[in-house]
Specification:
about 260 residues, 13 helices, elongated, disordered C terminus, mainly alpha, about 0% strand, single chain
Length: about 260
């Protein structure tokens, strides 16, 4: 319906001006104008759907945490609306380059999910990190194990470590979203619910392990390195409940 409305509006208001601009109204300019309008309608519809889906994910995430009793109104804040317009995800270029792998049934989707797992998991948990106002540097330490750039992390072994809970979570949600037809429509919503349950488990375990480092930095401690928990082993929170929402097995062997 969104695409149809966009197409009608562009045909009414943009077709003739573009035909005149392309060739002064010659027959071939009308053909080019029609093709341009079709492309513009597709791009505009995709943007609107993406923003609407992101807004729905934010609402699902927040309400799920509220229902679980883990949303603290005094210290947590819902992700800002402007974030819903941010369609560029983490490690976006690599995702675009590797996206054709999804054309290969199962194996290609699994490979795509494995390559992008950590960053997909980080994207989904970004709503939680924003809610608790976790700084970007601390997010990188929490998810990647240390403060390194996305590009450097892409070639670092710990990014794909089996003990990295964000990578394991990201693999599952990315694989589900690679499901033909319904993957990109239905599973982003259920995955937002799963991310909220993952965040609830982290909250019940005391919050992200990297918060210990933040407390030490704020307090000016000298033995920070000794108390920093390696984020590649995850936060220690259970993740079985979150995985169940995505309907795939998700074993948790991390100790609390």
């Amino acid at each position: 319906m969104t695409a149809f409305i966009c197409l009608i509006l562009l045909l009414v208001f943009a077709l003739k001006p573009q035909a005149m601009a392309f060739g002064g109204g010659e027959w071939w300019s009308w053909v080019l104008a029609v093709l341009a309008v079709l492309l513009e309608a597709a791009v505009l519809a995709a943007l609107l759907v993406s923003v609407s889906q992101s807004k729905a994910q934010t609402e699902i995430f927040t309400e799920t945490m509220r229902l679980e009793g883990c949303w603290d109104e005094t210290r947590m804040k819902k992700q800002r609306l402007i974030k819903d317009f941010n369609i560029a995800k983490k490690n976006y270029i690599v995702r675009i380059i590797t996206f054709p792998l999804n054309l290969i049934p199962f194996a290609g989707a699994a490979l795509y999910s494995a390559i992008n797992a950590t960053f997909v998991g980080w994207d989904y948990m970004d709503r939680y990190f924003d809610a608790i106002k976790l700084k970007g540097r601390l997010q990188r330490i929490e998810v990647l194990g240390e403060d390194r750039s996305d590009c450097a992390a892409l070639f670092h072994r710990s990014t794909y470590d089996d003990d990295n809970l964000y990578a394991r979570f990201g693999f599952i949600v990315a694989f589900l979203e690679a499901t033909p037809v319904i993957g990109s429509v239905f599973f982003p919503l259920t995955n937002a619910c799963a991310a909220a349950l993952f965040a609830c488990d982290i909250e019940k375990a005391g919050g992200p392990s990297v918060l210990l480092l933040e407390l030490l930095e704020d307090g000016g401690g000298d033995d920070q390195d000794a108390t920093l928990v390696d984020a590649t082993t995850g936060t220690g929170a259970a993740t079985e409940t979150a995985a169940a929402t995505s309907s795939l097995p998700y074993a948790n062997d991390a100790s609390k």
